[in-house]
Amino acid sequence: MIIKKAEFVTSAVSIKGCPPNDRPEVVFAGRSNVGKSSLINSMLNRKNLVKTSSQPGKTRLINFFNINDFMYFVDLPGYGYASVPKSEKAKWGNIIEEYLLKRQNLMNIILLVDIRHEPTSDDILMYNWIKNYNRNVIVMAVKSDKIPKGKIQKNLEVIRKSLNLDKGDILLPFSSQTKSGREELWGILDEQLGINEPFRV
What's the confidence (pLDDT) of residue 74? Predict the structure, then answer.
């Protein structure tokens, strides 16, 4: 996809606050410090469209971004941050569950995990949650620039086994710093969206 337009649209605390359900939505999910904002900015070739924060757990809303007046990128609240009160975690969980259950134009969920570490229990729970709702999922193993290239495949295999990925699930390494994996992910999304033009920055 050639990115001609990328802009923030709105934040929602429930399904009622979401934009009209009239275009495909690609959703980004992951732990609060895994780098969702950096990945989305990298995918869109923007530096600060999605604000990054040094304070994990800051994103507490469902944030919608209009891409080319054709689709939405959707940033879900991060999960797994220890200092967030249990009541707040439960609230986020309810927001995410309602969205995954009721949003009909949800095309794919991009689940981010850190390639340097074995997936956490929260990552496993999120993956199982996605599959329980019969949603398509692509697992992006981010921060691939932080490990030697020779370890990438080994670490991907650890992630695959820990999450117990289904045979058809896609697992890709990604680096927001080097842009490695960006064109591969766009290629998959373009195919699903029926877009024939190649990805270009």
Answer: 96
Beta strands in the chain (DSSP E): 6-12, 25-30, 62-67, 71-75, 106-114, 137-142, 170-173
Phi, psi of 24 (to 5 degrees): -60, 150
Cα 131 → chain centroid: 15
pTM here?
Answer: 0.89
CB 25 within 8 A of CB 103: yes
Cα–Cα distance, 106 to 26 (Å, whole number): 6
What tokens were used for 149? Answer: 């290239």
Q: Which residues contact 92 (CB under 8 A, 6 or more apart)?
A: 60, 77, 79, 84
Q: Are 13 and 88 in contact (CB under 8 A)?
A: no
Residue 182 makes CB contacts below 8 A (sequence gap 6+) with: 42, 43, 174, 199
Q: State the pLDDT at residue 78.
A: 84
